[in-house]
Amino acid sequence: MSDRVVLLGTKGGPALRAGGAMPTASLLEMDGRRVVVDCAIGVTKGLVEAGMDLRALDLIFITHLHSDHVLELGPLIHTAWTTGLKTPVTVYGPPGIDAYWAGFLASMAYDNAIRVADEGRVPLGDLVQVVVYGEGVVLDGPLRVSALRVPHPPVVDAFALRFEGARVVTFSGDTAYFPPLAEFARGSDVLVHEALLPAGVEAIIAKTGLGDKLRNHLFASHTKAVDVGRIAQAAGVGRLVLNHLVPADDAEITAADWLAEVAQTFAGDAAVGTDGMEILL
Ligand SMILES: [Zn+2]
Ligand SMILES: [Zn+2]
Q1: 23, 33, 113, 132: most buried by Cβ count inside 10 Å?
Q2: How far is the CA of 154 from the centre of ligand 2 (A)?
């Protein structure tokens, strides 16, 4: 297994459109570990398509509780369980992740009980440990994971995550432009950073009919591509990958448009994320 990041879903926001990208989920494979970062709808299919055996599900990190990062967490674990998962899964998430998981188990109580009684499975709840994390070191050891609180109003518990093993990979999570993220990501081989293209925002406003409220949220809570370049440049990352694209499904906007913005502030290697994109480490 070569060390890699696979982007499973690359659009920002929860809405789906025909032919468009899926919302945020990623797979990091490093030093023989498999880590799922965020679990939007589509994560389960995305992992299978990326070649992962769901019975090997082990570590999951959720950056924050917006639905485009957590909606399919329960269904992913449940599907791994019905695929034959027998080993423990640990879910690291911000405060509230424990309530999400308890609610999911409650919603599936009928099916879970039947599968234990009828199919002899280990109770699903017994396989899963939920760990609520905050800023700082989340996991220590050969795989070291640390979290930085990032500004993503009105969400308070939103985090960037840095994974250190043979390589270093940092995910920005959802964040407004946040210069301290450059220090946090310093020396990363790969920085996966969310990005917004101002030219495409007005088209989204028109399409959703949500007006000023959505416009204000987008600019207060996300990072323009030109500012993403500033972070990558200051951090000295090996490679920048744009993710959580807003907009993600505007035919008028091409990868060249995104990269032109980034190139104003970042001199290194940059790529625009697409669903299924594999980045070798
Ligand atoms: Zn999001
Ligand atoms: Zn968000």
Answers
A1: 23
A2: 9
